[in-house]
Amino acid sequence: MATQERAEDLTGRARIRDAALLEFAEHGVKGATIRGIAKAAGVSPALVQHHYGTKEALRAACDEHVIEVIRETKQEALRGRMASPNFLAIAMRTALPIQRYLARALTDGSAAAAVLFDEAVAFSEEMLERGAPGMSRPDTEDPHGYATVMTGMSFGLIVLHEHMTRSLGADVLMGDGYPRMALAMLDVLDDRLLTPELVAQTRAALKTLPAPGGRPPDEEDR
Fold first, then answer.
1. Measuring CA to CA, which of 39, 86, 108, 136 is 20 to 30 A from 25?
2. What percent of the chain has pLDDT over 90?
3. How far is 20 from 32, CA to CA, in rounded Å?
4. Of 55, 67, 70, 1, which Cα lies nearest the Cα of 24?
5. Which DSSP state fits 175?
6. What's this model's pTM, rounded to 2 decimal places?
7. Residue ranges in the chain assigned as alpha helix (H)
């Protein structure tokens, strides 16, 4: 009996946490309430407080869960499972509520969002350096900058999901718009829009730009 009670207790905690993910995503931390989360989870406010105590503690639990899910998904991808349709389907179903939560957290200034961004940059840099199935190492003299910009582009799609959804005419986080957005992103990554000559000219120009309020970099700076 005690074992069953513990299992039900864990299930109840997970149900409350999952409801909180969506409530925080929809209303932000300031707008979400214990009563609203309890209603979404189909439990009493007292049970939410029994499991988590305060809204701040529940938000911290959501942050921890999001970080863990993204870590696990990335590790699976690094093992070469990204090309598997089954993996993609499961990852998408799992990631959709996570993405909605993350989209709000990135704009609300969540501590978890900062951790996730930094971890995503480090993960991308490691993956680009070490290589992964189906990926080539990038031709760059600044791997950290490359990984940071690549992460910013990916996170930017999540933050701008409402505008992406409006433009594509379908929800890019929770609906049919996601595959279209992902396919377009693949096209962007696979394409080379700039000619080698234009890249060389622009690269040379950028390297001679003066710092704000300063002089152009000299040879030692470069």
1. 86
2. 23
3. 8
4. 55
5. S
6. 0.67
7. 2-31, 34-41, 45-52, 55-78, 85-108, 111-130, 143-159, 161-168, 177-190, 196-207
